[in-house]
Structures are given as C-alpha cells and as structure tokens.
Fold:
Amino acid sequence: MNGTTPAPETMKSATELVVERPGEFARENYLSIHRGVRAWLLTKDHKRIGLLYLGTILIFFLIASVAAALMRIELLTPQPKLVTSETYNKLFTIHGVLMVWFFLIPSIPTVLGNFVLPMMIGARDVAFPKLNLMSWYIFVAGGALALWSLIRGGVDTGWTFYTPYSTTYANTHVISMAAGVFVAGFSTIVTGINFIVTTHKMRAPGLTWFRLPLFVWSLYATSLIMVLATPVLAITLALISVERFWGVGIFDPKLGGDPVLFQHLFWFYSHPAVYIMILPGMGVISELITCFSRKRIYGYAWVGSASMAIAILGFMVWGHHMFVSSQSVYAGMIFSILSFLVAVPSGIKVFNWTATLHKGSIHFATPMLYALGFIGLFTIGGLTGLFLAALAVDVHVHDTYFVIAHFHYIMVGGMVMAFMGGLHYWWPKISGRLYPEFAGKLAAMITFIGFNLTFFPQFILGYLGQPRRYHIYPPEFQIFHVLSTAGASVLGIGYLMPLIYFIWSWRRGRAAGPNPWRATGLEWQTSSPPPEHNFEQTPIVTGPPYSYSAEKDVDLNLASI
Amino acid sequence: MEEVVQPKVYVRTCIALLVLLAVTWSIGYINLGPFNLIVALAVSIAKAIVIALFFMHIKGSSRILHLAAVAGVIWLLIMISLTLGDYISRGWVPLNH
Amino acid sequence: MSISISPASEEAFVGQQFDDIEQQRDAAKLGMWIFLATEVLFFGGLFLGYTIYRFTYGHIFVEASRKLDVLIGGTNTAVLLISSLLMAFAVRAAKLDQRRALVGLLAGTAVLGCVFMSLKGVEYHKDYVDHLVPRMGFKWEGADPGNAELFYWIYFAMTGLHAIHVTVGIGIMLVLTLLAWLGKFSHGNHNTVEIAGLYWHFVDIVWVFLFPLLYLVGHR
Structure:
C-alpha cells in the first residue's frame, strides 16, 4: 500500500523518521465523502461519531475546568474572597458532575474507542451504527439537562448526591441534575452494548481473542462495567428524584429507611465507574508503550486478563467508600481485603509495562511522554489508594485532600494523560496530518509538571487534616493551596497548547501517511484519514499483535505495509 | 438458516408455567414459616428458567448468550449478598462496653 | 423436531457493516441479551431495597402484604404468562413467514398487555381507596406505620417500574403489528420481532418474581 521506505541508517527516533518521510494524504476519506452539517448530524460512521463526541466532551471539559479554576483562585486565601459558601458548594458539584459523567467516562471509550475499535478489529463499522449515533444524541440530551440545571442555579450536593441531604434538605436543582446524569447513563449503556457485540461478532478473519490489541481488551472490560453498573446508578438517581418529588421514599429515615442504603447503591455503580475511567487509559498505554519501545508487550495474556480481573473484582470493593458510615466493621474488613486484591491486577499491568520498556528501543515521541507520565502518576495514585483501603488509615484521611489528591492522580494523572497520549498517537489517523512534534513534547512536559505541582501538595494538605469541600481554612495551610493553584495554572497551559496546535494541524499540518509510527495495528493498515468503510479489503490476521522487534530497531519498516 | 420449534413445545411450556403459578399461589395460604419465602423463590426461579429456555430459546443457543443471560443475575447476587452482609453483621459489635 | 426454512431474499436486509444475515441476527440477539442483563440490574436496585427492608422489618412486611389484592395479582401473572405464549408463537410465525398469523399474534400480545394494565389500574385505585398509597391519604391501623408505608412505597416503585416496561412493550407490539400488516417482516427479516419477543418475555419474568415477593410475603 505504501511505497516510500526511508533509508534505515538515518533513523534515530520515530519523530525524525517522520520528518524524512512525508506521507500521503488520502483525498478520498471519511471526512471528504459527505459534506455539510446535515451529513454530520445524521452520520452512522463510527469515526465521525467519535469526532462528534470529542467536540461535545471538550465543551463539558471546559465548563468543568472553569469551575475548578474558580475554586483554585478562591483557595488562594484562607478567608473567602471571591465566592460565597453556597457558590463554592455549587462549583465543586458542577466540577465533579461534569468531569465524571460528561468528560471522563465518555472520554476514551466514545472518542478513541469509537474511532479505532472497529478499525483495530478489521471491521467496517460497529455492530449497531444507528444505536451509536443515538447514544450521542442521548448524551447531548443528558448534557443539556445538566447545563439547564446549572443555569437555573446549580446543585450543591456534591457529585455524590448523598441522602438525606439531596432528597430532603438541599434547596437546589437536584432533580434536573439527576435527570441529566440518568439520561447520559443510557448513552453509556448503549455504547457498552455496542462495543461488546462488536468485539464478539465483527472481528476480521484470523483475529482470535488472543490476537486482539490490548486496547480492545480494555474496552471490552470497560463495556462490561458500563452495562452492569450504570443501570444501578440510573435506578438510584430515579429513586432520589422520586423521593424528593413525592416527599417520602426508601431512603427516608422517617419511614425507617436507611440513607446508607443509598451509599451502597451509589458506590456499587461509582466504584466500578472509577474503572470505567481508568481501564481504557490502561489499554491506550499498552498500545503506546509497545509502539515507542519497538517491543512486544511483556506477558500479553497477563495484561489482557488483568483488565478482565479489574473489571470483575472492581464490583466487589465499593464498601471502602463507606468505612466511616454506619456500615458494619465486619463488612468493612471484607471490603478492605477485596480492595487490596484489586491492586494485584493493576500491579501486574504496571510491572508488565516497565518490563516491556526493558531493553526496548525507546523513542521519546509525544505519545510516549504521556505514557511514561501515566505509569508514574498512576502508580502514585494506585499506591495511595491502598493507604485508603486500610481501615485505620482511612479513618484519619477520609474526606480530606488526601483523597482528592489520590483520585486526581488516577483520573487526571492517569486517564487524562492517557487520553492526551492516545489523541496524539491516533491524531495522524484521525486528521491525516501530523501535529508539531516539538510543541507536543513541550505540552506533555508542562502538563506533567503542572499536574504534580497541583496535586502533590494536596497529599500533604490532606494528611495534615485539611478536609475536602471547604473554602475557609487555617492560615498555616495557605502555602500548599498557593502551590496547588500555581500548578493548576501551569496545567491549564499544558491543556490549552494541544487544543491550539491540533486545530492548527487539522488544515496546516504535514500529511502523515498511512502509518507514521510504523505501528503494527490494523488501524494503521489503511490510508489516513481512512475511507468511509475503513478498509478497501477486509484484512486477514495471521499473527499475534505487537510484532515489533527492538533488535531490528533501525529497520522500522516491519509493519509490512 | 433459521429453525423453528414445534408448537406443542410452547403449549407445554405455558402449561408448566401456569401449574407453577398455581403452586406459588396455593403455598401462599399455608404457613410454612421461613419456607414460604424459599418455596416461592424456588418456584419463581424455576419459572424464569423455563421461560428463558423455551420461550427465549436459550436452549440450543450459543454459549455467549448463556453467559449474557446469567451475567445480570450473578451481578445482582454480588450486589445483594455484599450489601446484606453489611446489614446482617451490623448488630455483631456490642455497643455497650 | 424442527423445520428449517430456506433463505429466499434474506441478503437484502443485511446492514453494510455485516457480512451475512447470520452475523446480523447473532449480533442483534446478543445485543438484546446484554440489554436485558442491564435491565436485571436496573430492577436490581429495587430488589436490593426490598431485600434489605424485608430483612429489617420482616413482620411489618408480612402484615402489609396481606392487604394487597392477591386475586388481581395472581390473575395478572396468568395474563402475562399467556401473553408470553402468544409472543413465542408470533416469533415462530415471523420465522415461517406467516403474515396473517403474525399480525394476529402480535395484536393479541398487545391486547393481553392492555388487560394486564387495566387490571393494574383497578388494583391501584383499590389501593388508593384503602389508604395504602404513601403520602396520599396513607393510613395504617397497626404498629409501625412508617415501616408499612415503606413497604407500600417499594410496592408502588416496583410495580410502577414494571408497568412502565409493560406500557413500552405494548407500544412496541402495536408498532410491530402495523409493520407486520404492511409485510415488513417477510422473507427472513424477522430479527426485530425476535428481539422484541425477548424483551416481552423478560418483562414477564420480572413479574414472575414480583408476584410472590409482594403479594405473598408470609402466608395469608
């Protein structure tokens, strides 16, 4: 398919490689074939739906980031200066709700998953293209409800909607916000069903389960959680809305109802949802680490099975969010042990990625910088999670900034880094063009530094006893808050840079060619941008994935393209 | 190539379901203590299995459909058993020291 | 035991993303079964609430359950079971390309669904008259009225959610009846009828559990 083979001796890194080898821009592609707004709004093409999702979640990411920025500015001083307590409560609620349900959960699955999953398995589209489009419309409807709730004055319950505050005492727009999340949940379910069926039924000839790229495994595990956990959130939100509306309900202590039952239901969804927010990221990292160290993944079956183990074990640990509620100590002990167990498959992944790096031919391209950042930050986030899974330690740091720092290391240091890495990695496929590599590396570094500056001080803050969700604090904590706010400003620059150069490269970037990274996945065996139905001919798979070879580093043309 | 089942299979299935309904209903008038619940659940589970096997054609379908059919139930059992475990064990710690 | 049908012009209904009708049918069935697993957990939240409170307030649940109308509840179970029989025959008729039978069976399923909903309506009205509706004139003579109210709240939530599903099912059946009458499901294009059938049977299964759990908590 591709005739231009560069002279192998001159290659030092994947980046330089690209410079020497201007690729070909496919004129006939999924972007050019049908033009106009109508064609986009009625598209059934998984690639276009992925881009629709990308645009939508970026809007929510921006709004939620503004909320975070306002909070960080407010926290510069120990006494309130910028916002009232009520506004502060609404800010952290909207930040949480939008970031969790309207950015992190859809981020990698609906954007990168939608775009590359069918191509990775050699399919023309997902199994149910109309449902795929429908899921985007449902998502937009849910988002509109959430924004409507925000415009009417917002919600102050926190993203967790704890009862009885949310059902009885809050004077804010809980029902419309809950309705927004409820509706968006169905879009997640539809995506999950689509991905599971696609992976089962649409694989190219020869593509057995153990030849699947690890990103597909991780999306499959994620989809499993999506379809089995999300309905529980839906019914729980419906129950608090009805209780609020009707005046009595099953969490109502007046009738003998138990508000802690709400926590059980909520965390039965929301803990697995944490894995919806990290598993796809882990899949992306497996793709990046192998490609940019030119090596097969170390222990393929272990990494793939670890995804499944995390998905299943992740359903049995939710009680660790409830150690200081009225949950029984015995249940707490069981949940604590199970939480320690779930660290095992996560550890397997980290060790296998680092083992893959060993003796690899490592290219520090932008996606790889994000991937390496991910491994370090995820490890910190994961290990501090073990502190929190220990009953006694949790009593000390529960509801403090320690928890905030812990899950931001997973969600932002993990998932967002992986999302950015994946976006850079597949951008040449998505747009057919290359982003500026130097700016990319710079942005990756700035993000990494800004992130650590923002969230590392919060570990110390939390350990010293600063509770979460307060905007008034003792003056001795100010230095940590100032550091954190400074870090957030740096982080903001790190996020704005890619936005600018991606938009620039969409038209101005140099043509990427079908496979600028010399990667082995099926998605690289078609032109960039891909044609409407992905492949000219259905590919036939004859071997395992990641057939890179570090010894033959200079001969990068082994993807047989 | 799609295959269809003989009509009598469906009719027999329905009769079996109605008989099972009669069993539940009549047991409801007898005091069996805790066994009222156990029998009622056992009959319901039997009915659900019969419906799934014959009306929903789980019998003779691929293994992945079997898996999808039981997955929801297994996950429901995880949710109920771990939560119920909390409520059962709440009274175990004596509060009066 | 089974009769096979030869494909006539089945390939005309294959979506561009699929290779053949077999793949399309398998995908649709698997998708529906996964959706049903989702539904199990959607109802599951309520089943969990029921389990916890029945464990905590068992005696009150027995008392409260006795006030529900077991005759209507039981009859409705039979109505749904028979509707499931019609649905199973409808799927069979679609596979055999028997258009008139299909139209009749789908309409019959919808009618039985309406019978179920009418009986449910009568029962809800009776509950209201008997002061069993939480917060709407709820009265309880015995001990622990709050816990009894909790039982009826769960009863209305579970049967209400089920009723919504039956209503959606009736809507689907009516649309399918119309489409069948127009001949949309001929020549092997019976996928839609089959997966709608799966949904209908599932709604039936939910009721099979609701009936004893709500109406027959203890003995009567």
Observations:
- The CA atoms of residues 40 and 100 of chain C lie 34 Å apart.
- Chain C touches chain A at residues 15-18, 23, 26-27, 30-31, 34-35, 37-39, 41-46, 48-49, 52-53, 56-57, 134-135, 144, 146-147, 149-150, 153-154, 157, 161 (CB under 8 Å).
